[in-house]
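Ops channel
N.P.: pipeline sanity check, posting one input/output pair.
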């Protein structure tokens, strides 16, 4: 039986084993998917050991995505541009490829929630950390106009050097109603870690009222602070990042299993239940 794992720290609550078992059932594949807790100092050796012992593939999560990009022998162009890897694929003879499926995972989830094929929207991404930077290219590729707003403006300026057509919005502008109505409809994406501490962001209710979707990349047992805020302000539609987690996992699965792409809709209820029970 092929073995897969996810490297992270912390990792005890990772939903990846459940998600991948459910995906495997869709194709009649038998696999073992484990969680690997490792330290920063031990990460490279843990990865090497896993693949030496015949590991079929691995996911990488916080805080190792950037380190993983420096560890592999082959980086996909999108992983190279994001400077981050969430999927490790063994190529044989000690060679390892690194890819990132986070951006495409978000795009697919937005398309699923909004029931559309393309993303003819302005996507206002709040935050400019690892998660935000890894989704810019995929959003732009899907036709979205990406605007980024972060508490520390310097991070957005740095990203503007790497990504053409990335627009910036001063963080303070979020506290006031939007200056002018956007030419296209807008999606708000919270890519900050503020929801981790239950902190509300200083966003004026008018931003939520005019958006087609308020989306938090974070997910949890309860609605996140951002989604509570959006709901209270009168947002038409809200969604958390659980769908993104499952979509990026489905894309990793396809990379390891000859392009077989599992159905996300089929596993979402079970994963939502498991999240509620933990
Ligand atoms: P980082 O630590 O790399 O970045 C954190 C970002 O949040 C920075 O832009 C930071 O701003 C901003 N921030 C933090 N606190 C506040 C605050 N109180 N007010 C305003 N801005 C704040 O985190 P990641 O990018 O790795 O993760 C961000 C979120 O995305 C997390 O909630 C994570 O769980 C989620 N995520 C979800 C995934 C999924 O599959 N659903 C995948 C990956 C991430 P500044 O630069 O000013 O400090």
């Amino acid at each position: 039986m092929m073995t897969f794992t996810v490297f992270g720290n912390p990792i005890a609550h990772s939903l990846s084993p459940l998600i991948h078992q459910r995906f495997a059932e869709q194709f009649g594949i038998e696999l073992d998917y484990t969680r690997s807790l490792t330290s920063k100092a031990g990460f490279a050796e843990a990865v090497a050991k896993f693949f030496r012992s015949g590991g079929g593939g691995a996911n990488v999560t916080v805080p190792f995505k950037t380190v993983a990009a420096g560890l592999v022998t082959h980086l996909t162009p999108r992983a190279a541009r994001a400077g981050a890897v969430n999927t490790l694929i063994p190529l044989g003879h000690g060679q390892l490829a690194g890819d990132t499926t986070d951006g495409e995972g978000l795009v697919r989830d937005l398309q699923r929630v909004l029931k559309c094929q393309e993303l003819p929207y302005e996507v206002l991404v709040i935050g400019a950390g690892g998660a935000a930077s890894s989704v810019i290219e995929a959003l732009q590729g899907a036709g979205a106009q990406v605007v980024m707003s972060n508490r520390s403006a310097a991070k957005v300026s740095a990203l503007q050097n790497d990504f053409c057509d990335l627009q910036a919005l001063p963080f303070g502008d979020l506290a006031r109603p939007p200056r002018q109505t956007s030419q296209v409809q807008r999606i708000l994406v919270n890519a900050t870690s503020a929801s981790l501490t239950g902190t509300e962001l200083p966003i004026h209710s008018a931003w939520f009222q005019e958006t087609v979707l308020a989306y938090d990349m974070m997910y949890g047992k309860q609605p996140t602070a951002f989604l509570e805020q959006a709901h209270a302000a009168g947002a038409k539609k809200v969604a958390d990042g659980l769908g993104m987690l499952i979509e990026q996992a489905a894309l990793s699965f396809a990379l390891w299993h000859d392009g077989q792409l599992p159905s996300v809709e089929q596993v979402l209820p079970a994963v939502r239940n498991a999240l509620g029970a933990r």
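N.P.: looks fine end to end. Residues 2-100+243-276 form a domain with the Rossmann fold fold (CATH 3.40.50.10860).
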